[in-house]
Amino acid sequence: MLLSIEGLVLLCLGFFVVSTLYSSVGFGGGSSYLALLTLVLVNFFAIRSIALVCNLVVVSGSTFLYLKHGHTRFKDFLPFVITSIPMAFLGASFRLKEEVFFIILGIALIISSVSLLWQTSGIKWNEPTKTYPSSLSYVIGAVIGLLSGLVGIGGGIFLAPILNHINWNKSVKIAALASFFILVNSISGLVGLLIAGTIELPWVETLALGVTVLIGGQLGVRLSLKKLSANSIKRITAILVLIVGLRVLLVNGLQLL
Protein backbone atom coordinates (compact mmCIF):
# COMPACT_ATOMS: atom_id res chain seq x y z
CA MET A 1 0.00 0.00 0.00
CA LEU A 2 1.52 3.28 -1.17
CA LEU A 3 -0.75 5.69 0.75
CA SER A 4 -1.86 6.06 4.34
CA ILE A 5 -5.50 5.32 5.17
CA GLU A 6 -6.21 9.03 5.62
CA GLY A 7 -4.53 9.90 2.33
CA LEU A 8 -6.45 7.21 0.46
CA VAL A 9 -9.79 8.36 1.93
CA LEU A 10 -9.14 11.96 0.84
CA LEU A 11 -8.08 10.77 -2.62
CA CYS A 12 -11.24 8.67 -2.91
CA LEU A 13 -13.32 11.72 -2.02
CA GLY A 14 -11.65 13.72 -4.80
CA PHE A 15 -12.12 10.89 -7.29
CA PHE A 16 -15.81 10.61 -6.33
CA VAL A 17 -16.43 14.29 -7.05
CA VAL A 18 -14.52 14.15 -10.35
CA SER A 19 -16.22 10.97 -11.57
CA THR A 20 -19.70 12.29 -10.70
CA LEU A 21 -19.20 15.61 -12.50
CA TYR A 22 -17.39 14.27 -15.54
CA SER A 23 -19.67 11.28 -16.12
CA SER A 24 -22.70 13.60 -16.18
CA VAL A 25 -21.52 14.84 -19.59
CA GLY A 26 -20.05 11.59 -20.88
CA PHE A 27 -16.44 12.10 -19.79
CA GLY A 28 -14.31 9.70 -17.78
CA GLY A 29 -12.32 12.26 -15.79
CA GLY A 30 -8.89 10.94 -16.77
CA SER A 31 -7.13 14.30 -16.92
CA SER A 32 -8.29 15.22 -13.40
CA TYR A 33 -7.40 11.77 -12.02
CA LEU A 34 -3.88 12.36 -13.30
CA ALA A 35 -3.77 15.76 -11.61
CA LEU A 36 -4.93 14.35 -8.25
CA LEU A 37 -2.61 11.35 -8.36
CA THR A 38 0.45 13.49 -9.05
CA LEU A 39 -0.16 15.20 -5.70
CA VAL A 40 0.24 11.99 -3.71
CA LEU A 41 2.23 9.52 -5.85
CA VAL A 42 5.67 9.72 -7.43
CA ASN A 43 5.62 6.59 -9.62
CA PHE A 44 4.64 7.81 -13.09
CA PHE A 45 3.71 4.33 -14.33
CA ALA A 46 1.38 3.80 -11.36
CA ILE A 47 -0.18 7.26 -11.83
CA ARG A 48 -0.88 6.67 -15.52
CA SER A 49 -2.11 3.11 -15.00
CA ILE A 50 -4.52 3.95 -12.15
CA ALA A 51 -5.93 6.96 -14.01
CA LEU A 52 -6.50 4.87 -17.14
CA VAL A 53 -8.24 2.07 -15.25
CA CYS A 54 -10.51 4.54 -13.41
CA ASN A 55 -11.29 6.27 -16.69
CA LEU A 56 -12.23 2.91 -18.19
CA VAL A 57 -14.46 2.01 -15.24
CA VAL A 58 -16.45 5.25 -15.49
CA VAL A 59 -17.03 5.26 -19.25
CA SER A 60 -17.83 1.53 -19.33
CA GLY A 61 -20.69 2.08 -16.90
CA SER A 62 -21.80 5.23 -18.70
CA THR A 63 -21.75 3.56 -22.12
CA PHE A 64 -23.84 0.67 -20.79
CA LEU A 65 -26.50 2.98 -19.35
CA TYR A 66 -26.64 5.19 -22.44
CA LEU A 67 -27.04 2.02 -24.54
CA LYS A 68 -29.76 0.72 -22.22
CA HIS A 69 -31.72 3.97 -22.56
CA GLY A 70 -31.44 4.01 -26.36
CA HIS A 71 -28.99 6.90 -26.72
CA THR A 72 -26.18 4.86 -28.28
CA ARG A 73 -26.46 4.31 -32.03
CA PHE A 74 -23.35 2.49 -33.19
CA LYS A 75 -24.18 3.30 -36.80
CA ASP A 76 -23.71 6.99 -36.01
CA PHE A 77 -20.77 6.47 -33.64
CA LEU A 78 -18.56 4.09 -35.62
CA PRO A 79 -17.34 6.65 -38.22
CA PHE A 80 -15.76 8.70 -35.42
CA VAL A 81 -14.05 5.63 -33.95
CA ILE A 82 -12.93 4.05 -37.23
CA THR A 83 -10.80 7.05 -38.16
CA SER A 84 -9.75 8.00 -34.62
CA ILE A 85 -7.94 4.72 -33.85
CA PRO A 86 -5.30 4.84 -36.63
CA MET A 87 -4.87 8.60 -36.26
CA ALA A 88 -4.38 8.25 -32.51
CA PHE A 89 -1.65 5.72 -33.22
CA LEU A 90 -0.07 8.15 -35.68
CA GLY A 91 -0.31 11.02 -33.21
CA ALA A 92 1.38 8.96 -30.51
CA SER A 93 4.36 8.41 -32.81
CA PHE A 94 5.10 12.14 -33.19
CA ARG A 95 7.68 13.89 -31.02
CA LEU A 96 6.74 17.51 -30.34
CA LYS A 97 8.17 20.02 -27.91
CA GLU A 98 5.89 19.25 -24.99
CA GLU A 99 5.61 22.65 -23.30
CA VAL A 100 4.82 24.59 -26.48
CA PHE A 101 2.26 22.07 -27.64
CA PHE A 102 0.36 22.05 -24.36
CA ILE A 103 0.15 25.83 -24.37
CA ILE A 104 -1.49 25.63 -27.81
CA LEU A 105 -3.72 22.85 -26.51
CA GLY A 106 -4.76 24.90 -23.48
CA ILE A 107 -5.71 27.88 -25.65
CA ALA A 108 -7.75 25.62 -27.96
CA LEU A 109 -9.65 24.13 -25.02
CA ILE A 110 -10.38 27.56 -23.55
CA ILE A 111 -11.67 28.92 -26.86
CA SER A 112 -13.84 25.83 -27.30
CA SER A 113 -15.34 26.11 -23.82
CA VAL A 114 -16.03 29.86 -24.05
CA SER A 115 -17.71 29.33 -27.41
CA LEU A 116 -19.93 26.61 -25.95
CA LEU A 117 -20.84 28.77 -22.94
CA TRP A 118 -21.76 31.63 -25.27
CA GLN A 119 -23.96 29.28 -27.27
CA THR A 120 -25.98 28.35 -24.16
CA SER A 121 -26.35 31.90 -22.84
CA GLY A 122 -29.74 32.43 -24.46
CA ILE A 123 -32.99 30.74 -23.46
CA LYS A 124 -33.97 27.90 -25.82
CA TRP A 125 -37.25 26.06 -25.48
CA ASN A 126 -36.10 23.19 -27.66
CA GLU A 127 -32.74 21.77 -28.69
CA PRO A 128 -32.10 22.27 -32.41
CA THR A 129 -30.00 19.76 -34.30
CA LYS A 130 -28.53 19.91 -37.79
CA THR A 131 -27.93 17.27 -40.42
CA TYR A 132 -24.36 16.87 -41.68
CA PRO A 133 -22.84 14.56 -44.30
CA SER A 134 -21.40 11.34 -42.89
CA SER A 135 -17.98 12.32 -44.19
CA LEU A 136 -17.80 15.01 -41.49
CA SER A 137 -17.91 12.31 -38.78
CA TYR A 138 -14.88 10.61 -40.30
CA VAL A 139 -12.98 13.89 -40.53
CA ILE A 140 -13.78 14.95 -36.95
CA GLY A 141 -12.89 11.48 -35.66
CA ALA A 142 -9.55 11.59 -37.46
CA VAL A 143 -8.66 15.07 -36.17
CA ILE A 144 -9.66 14.27 -32.58
CA GLY A 145 -7.88 10.91 -32.79
CA LEU A 146 -4.67 12.60 -33.91
CA LEU A 147 -4.89 15.17 -31.11
CA SER A 148 -5.69 12.45 -28.57
CA GLY A 149 -2.67 10.47 -29.63
CA LEU A 150 -0.45 13.53 -29.34
CA VAL A 151 -1.47 14.33 -25.77
CA GLY A 152 -2.32 10.85 -24.50
CA ILE A 153 -5.93 11.27 -23.30
CA GLY A 154 -9.23 9.73 -24.40
CA GLY A 155 -10.36 12.58 -26.64
CA GLY A 156 -13.92 13.05 -25.42
CA ILE A 157 -12.99 16.39 -23.91
CA PHE A 158 -12.21 17.64 -27.45
CA LEU A 159 -15.05 15.84 -29.21
CA ALA A 160 -18.04 16.89 -27.07
CA PRO A 161 -17.58 20.71 -27.27
CA ILE A 162 -17.20 20.55 -31.06
CA LEU A 163 -20.30 18.42 -31.58
CA ASN A 164 -22.34 20.51 -29.13
CA HIS A 165 -21.25 23.70 -30.86
CA ILE A 166 -22.33 22.50 -34.32
CA ASN A 167 -25.55 20.94 -32.92
CA TRP A 168 -24.58 17.53 -34.30
CA ASN A 169 -27.25 15.84 -32.18
CA LYS A 170 -29.02 16.17 -28.83
CA SER A 171 -26.72 16.79 -25.87
CA VAL A 172 -27.43 13.43 -24.24
CA LYS A 173 -26.51 11.59 -27.46
CA ILE A 174 -23.29 13.59 -27.70
CA ALA A 175 -22.50 12.61 -24.10
CA ALA A 176 -23.18 8.97 -25.06
CA LEU A 177 -20.82 9.28 -28.02
CA ALA A 178 -18.14 10.88 -25.85
CA SER A 179 -18.35 7.94 -23.42
CA PHE A 180 -18.09 5.38 -26.21
CA PHE A 181 -15.26 7.31 -27.87
CA ILE A 182 -13.29 7.46 -24.60
CA LEU A 183 -14.04 3.79 -23.89
CA VAL A 184 -12.49 2.65 -27.16
CA ASN A 185 -9.44 4.89 -26.74
CA SER A 186 -8.98 3.86 -23.09
CA ILE A 187 -9.02 0.17 -24.01
CA SER A 188 -6.47 0.89 -26.71
CA GLY A 189 -4.30 2.76 -24.21
CA LEU A 190 -4.52 -0.04 -21.67
CA VAL A 191 -3.50 -2.59 -24.28
CA GLY A 192 -0.57 -0.33 -25.16
CA LEU A 193 0.58 -0.26 -21.54
CA LEU A 194 0.33 -4.05 -21.31
CA ILE A 195 2.33 -4.55 -24.49
CA ALA A 196 4.97 -2.05 -23.37
CA GLY A 197 5.15 -3.68 -19.93
CA THR A 198 4.69 -0.33 -18.20
CA ILE A 199 1.44 -1.00 -16.35
CA GLU A 200 1.69 -0.78 -12.56
CA LEU A 201 -1.41 -1.17 -10.41
CA PRO A 202 -0.99 -1.16 -6.60
CA TRP A 203 -3.98 -3.33 -5.76
CA VAL A 204 -5.25 -1.54 -2.62
CA GLU A 205 -5.32 1.92 -4.18
CA THR A 206 -6.60 0.63 -7.53
CA LEU A 207 -9.45 -1.33 -5.93
CA ALA A 208 -10.50 1.52 -3.61
CA LEU A 209 -10.40 4.15 -6.34
CA GLY A 210 -12.03 1.84 -8.89
CA VAL A 211 -15.03 1.20 -6.62
CA THR A 212 -15.23 4.92 -5.82
CA VAL A 213 -15.37 6.05 -9.46
CA LEU A 214 -17.81 3.27 -10.31
CA ILE A 215 -20.26 4.69 -7.75
CA GLY A 216 -19.59 8.32 -8.70
CA GLY A 217 -19.77 7.54 -12.41
CA GLN A 218 -23.11 5.79 -12.08
CA LEU A 219 -24.50 8.71 -10.07
CA GLY A 220 -23.30 11.24 -12.64
CA VAL A 221 -24.64 9.47 -15.71
CA ARG A 222 -28.02 8.97 -14.04
CA LEU A 223 -28.14 12.71 -13.39
CA SER A 224 -27.59 13.37 -17.09
CA LEU A 225 -30.30 10.90 -18.07
CA LYS A 226 -32.99 12.05 -15.62
CA LYS A 227 -32.24 15.45 -14.11
CA LEU A 228 -30.13 17.63 -16.41
CA SER A 229 -31.50 19.72 -19.27
CA ALA A 230 -29.68 20.02 -22.59
CA ASN A 231 -28.31 23.44 -21.71
CA SER A 232 -27.17 22.19 -18.29
CA ILE A 233 -25.19 19.39 -19.91
CA LYS A 234 -23.61 21.85 -22.33
CA ARG A 235 -22.72 24.30 -19.54
CA ILE A 236 -21.15 21.60 -17.36
CA THR A 237 -19.20 20.35 -20.38
CA ALA A 238 -17.95 23.88 -21.11
CA ILE A 239 -16.95 24.55 -17.49
CA LEU A 240 -15.04 21.27 -17.17
CA VAL A 241 -13.24 21.86 -20.47
CA LEU A 242 -12.42 25.42 -19.37
CA ILE A 243 -10.92 24.16 -16.09
CA VAL A 244 -8.76 21.62 -17.89
CA GLY A 245 -7.69 24.21 -20.48
CA LEU A 246 -6.69 26.74 -17.82
CA ARG A 247 -4.79 24.09 -15.88
CA VAL A 248 -2.91 22.94 -18.98
CA LEU A 249 -2.08 26.53 -19.94
CA LEU A 250 -1.00 27.66 -16.46
CA VAL A 251 1.11 24.62 -15.61
CA ASN A 252 2.94 24.48 -18.91
CA GLY A 253 3.18 28.26 -19.26
CA LEU A 254 4.97 28.44 -15.90
CA GLN A 255 7.43 25.80 -17.09
CA LEU A 256 8.48 28.05 -19.95
CA LEU A 257 9.16 31.06 -17.71
UniProtKB/TrEMBL annotation:
Transmembrane segments annotated in the record for this chain: 33-66, 100-118, 138-162, 174-195, 207-225, 237-256
PANTHER family, per database record: MEMBRANE TRANSPORTER PROTEIN MJ0441-RELATED (PTHR43701), MEMBRANE TRANSPORTER PROTEIN-RELATED (PTHR43701:SF5)
Compartment(s): Cell membrane; Membrane
Keywords of the record: Cell membrane, Membrane, Transmembrane, Transmembrane helix
Protein's recorded name: Probable membrane transporter protein
Family stated for the protein in its record: Belongs to the 4-toluene sulfonate uptake permease (TSUP) (TC 2.A.102) family.
Topological type in the membrane: Multi-pass membrane protein
Predominant localisation class: membrane
InterPro entries: TM_pro_TauE-like (IPR002781), TSUP/Inactive_protease-like (IPR051598)
Keyword Glycoprotein annotated: no
Pfam family, one: TauE
